[in-house]
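Quick note —
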Amino acid sequence: MRPIQKSNKLADVCYDIRGPVLEKSRQMEEEGHKITKLNIGNLAVFGFDPPDEIVRDMMLNLQNAAGYTDSKGMFAPRKAVMHYTQSKNIAGVTIDDIYLGNGASELIVMSMNALLNSGDEVLVPAPDYPLWTAAVSLSGGNPVHYVCDEQNEWYPDIEDMRRKITSQTRAIVVINPNNPTGALYPVELLLQIVELARQHQLIIFADEIYDKVLYDEAEHVSIASLADDVLFITLNGLSKNYRSCGYRAGWMVVSGEKRHAKDYIEGLNMLASMRLCANAPGQFAIQTALGGYQSINDLVGPGGRLLKQRDLAHKLLTEIPGVTCVKPKAALYMFPRLDPLIYPIADDQQFAYELLAEAKVLIVQGTGFNWIAQDHFRIVFLPNSDDLTEAMGRIARFLEGYRKRHSRG
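Predicted structure written out below.
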C-alpha cells in the first residue's frame, strides 16, 4: 500500500521537550528502569499542588461547565484578566481585547495562524521555547532566530535583532521571564526592543507565563506597559504561577496600537470561534487564582522550596569541572554550558541519549531550544532537594566518565 505521509507543513516543526529522547525514556521505563525526569516543567509530578481554592471552585462549578462558553471566554475570568493587566500597568485593555485559551500554547499557535502568510518572518530568540519556532513554521512563516548573549545575563542582542529585520519581518517574540535560561529583562532592554518594533512597525508577542516565578526580590515589567503606539500580544496563564498545568487555562491580551490591526483582530476572532471555546472548568479557575492568595510568593521567597532548589541545583552543577551556568533570576530552568574543550560534543541529542542510558536522567539538549551550538542542555530544578542532589550526582559521574573517554591525553 502507498505510505501515508505527514503534511509538508510539519517538515520544519519540532518539539524536542517531548521528542525522541523522551520516547527512549518511556521505553526504558517499560523495561523497569526508574528515570529522573528533568526535561519538563510539569510541577504536579514533583509535589507542587495548585492552590486549594482553585480546586474547590472548579469542583463547585463543574455542574455549570458542560456548555460552550463565549468563544473568547466567560465574562468573569476575562474581567479578572483585565484587572490583572491594569495591575501590570498595561493601558487601554477592554474585555473584548482578552481571549481565553486551552493554555497559552493554544493561543500562541492561534496568534501565528491569524497573522502569517507564506514567507513572512518572525524574530524568535535563540534559545527559545520551541513552540514559538514551531508555531511560526506551522503557520507558513519563517522563524529567524536572534541571539541571546550568555555573557550578558542571556539578554537579547539588540544589534543582532536589528540586523535580522527585513521587509518580510512581521513581529518580534519576547520571552520574559525566559525559558530556558531563567533570564529576566530590565526595563532599559525592553525599551530598546519597543523602539525597534516602533521603527519597523512590528508586533511584539510577549510570553510572560513565568511573571510571578521571580527570585531574589526581582520585579517583572510587562513590555506592553511601556508604549501605546506599538501592537502588543501578551500571553500568560495559570500553568506555572499557580501550578495548574493540566487545567489548560491561559489568556491572550491585545493592547497598544489596535487601530491598524482590525483585520488581524478579525482573524483572531475567527479562529477563536472555530475552536468554539476554551475548556470551561479551566476558565472557572482564573478569577479565583488571580484574586486569591498568591502562594507562589512563598515558594520563591526566602526559605521557599523553589528558591532553595534553584540555589542547590546551581551550586551542584557549577561544581562540576567544565560546567558553567548563569544563575536564573526567574522561571524553573537552568541552561548550563559544557566547555567544548572538555566535552567535545558533536551531537547533543546523542549526548542526551547517552546521559539517559548511563545515568537514568532525562534532560533536553540545547539544540532542542534552537540554540546555535552543541554545548548546552536544559534541566528543571523541580525535584525535592534529596532527589535533586541524587540527580546532580548522577550527572556529575556521567560527565566525569565522559571527560575520561574524550580526553585528548
